[in-house]
């Protein structure tokens, strides 16, 4: 990992959920940067400062006012508009906003234009790697926006990103994350079907995974989720509700650009079935549950 502690920079982090809480922590601990945090639930910000130091602020504007780089990790398009919009009203010219939320490319381009009008820079920088990746500081970060702003922000993102890559202009980071979610959805459904088939066939599923995991079927999902799927464990962070939100963004974008996504649309409906079974907060590997009920 790159040396991220050579220059201390004042930063803000807005949104301390499952992902944002540890990411902001890595900026403070690994990077050695003074961090001011904001969270809509103030108790979460107080818990963060108790653990990592730094400061908390009562509003996004107060958190962002003196920062050189402002990070954001919230829920959806309207959250980005509200939180980033308020924060940008208080920022000094030249400040960078790096949005780690998974949202539409449309809102990212909208916010990039708003930033440009105010003399700021906006980077759409969604992440992949889940809760474990955030906690261990090994996320994949895919970034859209101004190349010079990316170069300035990249060393900070390296505090929690094993891979931090500039993908193109505004919106390119979100579009890359959409590709990521398309691939994950198909992989997880295939893995669920394979594991359910192994059980129905009377095979030792764990041994099956040990064997085929050394061949062409190998994937990160197989390495990390196949055996837990067989064991009925589905509490590994990224919830079905969030995956459906992401797939909704993907399918909306596909309707706009003409991409054909039949498998993704089908898996989205399978996740709707899991929600109907009460699995809203189960992780994405819980596709297995609809095949084994």
From TrEMBL:
Residue ranges constituting the 3-hydroxyisobutyrate dehydrogenase-like NAD-binding domain according to the UniProt record: 171-288
GO biological process: organic acid catabolic process
Record's keyword annotation contains Hydrolase: no
A Pfam family assignment: NAD_binding_11
Name of the protein: 3-hydroxyisobutyrate dehydrogenase
Keywords, comma-separated and alphabetical: NAD, Oxidoreductase
Similarity comment: Belongs to the HIBADH-related family.
MF GO annotations: NAD binding; NADP binding; oxidoreductase activity
6-phosphogluconate dehydrogenase NADP-binding domain segment(s): 11-168
Source organism per UniProt: Azospirillum brasilense
Matching PANTHER family: 3-HYDROXYISOBUTYRATE DEHYDROGENASE-LIKE 1, MITOCHONDRIAL-RELATED (PTHR43060)
Lineage, highest ranks first: Bacteria, Pseudomonadati, Pseudomonadota, Alphaproteobacteria, Rhodospirillales
Sequence intervals crossing the membrane: none
Active-site residues per Swiss-Prot or TrEMBL entry: 177
């Amino acid at each position: 990992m790159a040396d991220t502690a050579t220059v201390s920079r004042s930063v803000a982090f807005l949104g301390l959920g499952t992902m944002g809480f540890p990411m902001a922590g890595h900026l403070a601990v690994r990077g050695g940067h003074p961090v001011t945090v904001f969270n809509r639930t103030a108790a979460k910000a107080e818990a963060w400062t108790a653990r990592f130091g730094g400061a908390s602020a009562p509003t996004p504007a107060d958190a962002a006012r003196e920062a050189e780089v402002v990070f954001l990790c919230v829920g959806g398009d309207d959250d980005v508009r509200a939180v980033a919009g308020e924060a940008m009203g208080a920022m000094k010219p030249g400040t960078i906003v790096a949005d780690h939320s998974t949202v539409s490319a449309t809102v990212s381009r909208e916010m990039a234009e708003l930033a440009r009008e105010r003399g700021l820079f906006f980077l759409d920088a969604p992440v992949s790697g889940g809760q474990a990746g955030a906690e261990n500081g090994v996320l994949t970060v895919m970034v859209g926006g101004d190349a010079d702003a990316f170069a300035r922000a990249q060393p900070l993102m390296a505090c929690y990103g094993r891979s931090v890559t500039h993908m193109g202009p505004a919106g390119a980071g979100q579009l890359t994350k959409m590709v990521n979610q398309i691939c994950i959805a198909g992989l997880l459904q295939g893995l669920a079907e394979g594991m359910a088939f192994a059980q129905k066939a009377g095979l030792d599923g764990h041994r099956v995974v040990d064997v085929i995991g050394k061949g062409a079927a190998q994937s990160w999902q197989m390495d990390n989720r196949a055996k837990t799927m067989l064991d009925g464990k589905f509490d590994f962070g990224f919830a079905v509700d969030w995956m459906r939100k992401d797939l909704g963004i993907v399918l909306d974008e596909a309707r706009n650009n003409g991409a054909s996504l039949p498998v993704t649309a089908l898996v989205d409906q399978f996740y709707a079935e899991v929600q109907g079974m009460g699995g809203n907060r189960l992780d994405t590997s819980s596709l297995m549950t609809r095949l084994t009920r």
